CNTLN protein (Nycticryphes semicollaris), 350 residues
Amino acid sequence: QQEKEDLQGKLKFREHLSQTAGKSEATPAPSKNSDLEMKQLQCKLKNSNNEISKQSTTIKSLKNEVQEKEERVQVLQAKVSRLERDLCMKRHLIEDLRSRLKANQENEKTSNETLESLERKVKALAEDCSNKKSSIDLLKQRLNVATKEKSQYEQMYQKAKDELEKKDLKLNDLEGKMIATEYAMTELEATASQQLHGLAKQTEQALETIQKQLLLTSDKVEEFVTFVKALARELQQSVQELRTKIKQAKKMGEVRARKKGLSQESVQLAASILNVSTTDLEEILEVEDDEEAAKTKMEFEKDKEWLQYIQKLLEAQFPFASPLLDAILEKLNEKKKLVEEYSSLMKHTV
């Protein structure tokens, strides 16, 4: 549009110049160059008009698209707001359902517990009924047996009644004898009570002696347990000392072998290269490697497990003598092997 306005201004200026030139007689006719320039400006004006028309059509189409998109955005915003409301309602509904589900689960748990208790009661009642049925059957059988026995006892009663009359006569005779026997029984009871009193005193004395012996045996057992624990600790400490001595002897042998292999000049040269003294260099050569450290750690763990095993054997029930003896003999054999190894190492070092 600015280009169009500039071109229109130039055309108006050219037209004004041409009119003023036609009016004035003194000025000559316009030249060919001005005509060409006028034609070029007219062509440019047409092109700019065409471009303006094109751009206006595109602007209109873009405006229509923008309007459509704005309408779509409004529709989508309305949908989003509806969806947000729906989502909020659904969340509230889900929370309500969760609370109801929790309440229902709790109610179900309580109902299950009551149902289980009722089932247990029903089972118990069924078992009780079956037991009662079996007891009723047994009672019926006993009743039949009792009726049979009753008839037998009635017959026996008649016989006994007859015999009783006969025995009443004998009873009178026996009553006199019973009086004599009662007198003798009282004398026997007096003598028996005296003897029982003496026996009670003897049993009390025996119980006191047995309690004293039990206390002595419990003290002896405690002393035995402390002795076994102390023996196990001493064995473990002596084994550890032998291991350390063996390690020290091996280190001394290695150091001596290294000193024999290296001359004094090479040792001093290595110390000067490392910027340390010869004693520091020997300490560096004597450093224990990782395998030896792991081995010592494993041996320490084994000793700890052995002591725990001894403790378990002492706390276990009887009999535990044979496994305890095997464990102590195992540690003694290990000590014997270590002593032999240490003596052989000391011979070689000497």
